[in-house]
Design a protein that fits this description.
This protein is of the alpha/beta class. It has a 3-stranded parallel β-sheet, with helices on both faces. Helix 1 links the parallel strand 1 and strand 2. The radius of gyration is 21 Å and the shape is elongated. The model has no long low-confidence stretch (mean pLDDT 87).
């Protein structure tokens, strides 16, 4: 009888590199613009309506840019993302159901 060989596999993923540069905190929202990216689910639309009211009334948010992703199987178009990055101070990107 020949000896059996066993291979031990570690199923744990490597630790991600956490040195990514994050955007600085936006701070006070008074007079700022928010971008809302909606995936089209009804419940997310209701949630974004609530967020918009709360951010305007409680925190002085000035403007909200709303964008619907026309194809839920793909990321939002790069040109649209670039525009939102130029025009908005914060973004809320939703995946609601």
């Amino acid at each position: 009888m020949s000896p059996r060989a066993y291979r031990i596999v570690n199923p744990v993923a490597p630790v991600p590199d956490l040195k990514a540069r994050l955007a600085p905190p936006v701070g006070d929202l008074t007079g700022k613009t928010a971008a809302f990216v909606d995936n089209g689910w009804w419940s997310l639309g209701v949630t974004l309506d609530y967020f918009e009211r709360a951010l305007r009334q409680r925190y002085g948010l000035q403007k909200v840019l709303r964008v619907k992703n026309p194809d839920l199987t793909r990321p939002l178009d790069g040109k649209v993302m670039d525009q939102l990055a130029r025009e908005a101070d914060i973004a809320i990107v939703g995946l609601g159901n």
